[in-house]
Amino acid sequence: MTASDGMTASPGTSRTSRIPTIDLRPWRSGDPAARAEIASTVDSALRTAGFLLVTGHGVDPALRARIRDAARPFFRQPASVKEPYTVRVGGRGWLGPGAEANGYAEGTETPPDLKESLSFATDAPAAAGTPFDDPAVRAEWSGENVFPAESPGLREPVETYLGQLRALSDELLGLLAVALAEPADFFTRHTAHPTWGFNINWYPGTEVVGEPEPGQFRIGPHTDFGTVTVLDRQAGKGGLQVYTDPADGGGGWEDAPYDPAAFTINIGDLMARWTGDRWRSGRHRVLPPPADVPTEELISLVYFHECDPGTTVEPVPAPKGRVAYEPVDSHVYLRGKLDSITVG
């Protein structure tokens, strides 16, 4: 396989800028040489941009299309129809206009993000031997998800998709462990009963959101908060941009490479902390509706995979890790981050 920059890519990988595309099929084959090359590529990418593209994942594109088709009619309803489903960030229901300003998480006072979301989260019931036995944990991190009556075909594809993304995310964590030169279960030993979040993000055009204010984005510049994010995107001019530091040879803000067959994968702050900042939490933003295509409408499917409640995250030591952070409770950390982007 020949990469777009003229370099010869390793089996299962191609390179665009600092964000490589990883084909999981050679990884799954078990061939030691292919797996070593892929792990090396992943380590390099996460040390620079914090992003990957992943193909060969086995999730049917038709399933993702069904979710979008079922969710779109709800978002196009008048606000009066959607308001009964209103929740705050981290809840289960509708996040309306003005609910989030993601730039606040990094200290940037941006106007509220130009999006709406249907938000889902962990629905694990209490079961013997799980963290959700604890009533406080169950109340904070588990609950019943809401499927609006206005989208009657939404539940089945979402629940099927979430099951597949849970399995894929654990597979990616196994790959990340090998890339970190740790045992394959280094992360997944903490995901027997993980929490997760899932947002269906609707990015309408200016006929819905109006003209963007100065410094206003569909999602403001930020890093994600947890371990691994799996993003299914649509191509658009008002789409995802990723930041790489020019001081480290990066290009600043650049459009993220797009492949309709791929998932876009990035790590969050907790994973960066876990690796002692060996890996970089991927900084990114979603551009506002473009001036030349002001009615552009996009829907993204964003899955946030976390770890078991009560997990203590302690950075790997030097020389692998670069920063010796104090250990943190994963979910206390996540709650603080979610609160930081909540508007009002």
Topology:
Layout: E1 13-16, E2 19-23, H1 24-29, H2 32-48, E3 51-55, H3 61-75, H4 79-82, E4 93-95, E5 116-121, H5 135-141, H6 155-179, E6 196-203, H7 206-209, E7 219-223, E8 228-232, E9 240-244, E10 252-255, E11 263-267, H8 269-274, E12 283-286, E13 298-305, E14 312-313, E15 328-329, H9 330-340
Parallel strand pairs: 2-3
Antiparallel strand pairs: 1-2, 3-11, 4-5, 5-6, 6-13, 7-12, 8-11, 8-13, 9-10, 9-12, 14-15
Helix pairs in contact: 2-6, 3-6
Percent in strands = 15-25%
- What value does the Rg take, in angstroms? 19 Å
Multimer state: single chain
Strand count: 15
Q: What is the CATH superfamily label? A: B-lactam Antibiotic, Isopenicillin N Synthase, Chain
Order of helices and strands: EEHHEHHEEHHEHEEEEEHEEEEH
Sheet bearing the most strands, described? 9 strands, mixed
Q: Helix segment count? A: 9
CATH architecture: Sandwich
Give a verbal description of the structure.
- With 344 residues, the protein is α+β, with helices and mostly antiparallel strands.
- It has a single domain, classed as Sandwich (Jelly Rolls).
- The chain has 9 helices and 15 strands.
- It has a 9-stranded mixed sheet with strand order 1-2-3-11-8-13-6-5-4.
- The longest helix is centred in the middle third of the chain and has 25 residues, at 155-179.
- The radius of gyration is 19 Å and the shape is globular.
- The termini are far apart.
- The relative contact order is 0.17.
- Residues 1-11 have low confidence and may be disordered.
